[in-house]
Amino acid sequence: MAAHVTLPGRHRRTEERAATRHHVRRSTLMVLAVCAVLYGLYAEVIVRHGDGPFTGGQAVLAVVSMVGFGALWYGYLRVRRALPRESRAAAFGLLFGLSVGFLYGLSGNSVLTVAVVSLVLAVSSGLMAFYVFYTHE
Fold it and tell me: How many domains does the chain have?
């Protein structure tokens, strides 16, 4: 007679995931580094309005933006597997909203407009991330 065999699930539980140490792949780090450099350079271009001389203050802004963007997203990449899907989607939405909101704020718009646009982008990207995480796990 054939016996039914129970196989373990594909994904580990959240507690088990939190206990393991997670490494970020080298290819992911390279993509993150390139995105951080582009983010910093784009922040500098927004402040410079696309023309005019390149100043030291703009260089500092570019470097600080690169480091800040890269550090926040690296932190997210380190802990994302240990988080349940709801928290992971909320963290992704928060980081996306902050990143785009910072760039939008550099363009000279009012604080209220920047806050509303950042909030809308954070909520919508968080909901999309939750949908993707929910359907792929």
Answer: 2
Residues 70 and 28 in one domain: yes
Tens of pLDDT, residues 22-79: 678 889 899 999 999 999 999 999 998 878 788 899 999 999 999 999 999 999 999 9
- The reported pTM is 0.76
What does the buried/exposed string (b/e) look like for 70-82 if buried means 16 or more CB atoms within 10 Å of the residue's CB? bebbeebbeebeb
Same domain membership, residue 109 and residue 62: no
Q: Measure the CA angle with vertex 43, ends 78 and 55; round to 5°.
A: 125
- Residue-wise pLDDT tens digits, 77-91: 999 889 999 999 999
The reply to whether 12 falls in a domain is: no
Q: Would 122 be classed as within a structural domain? A: yes
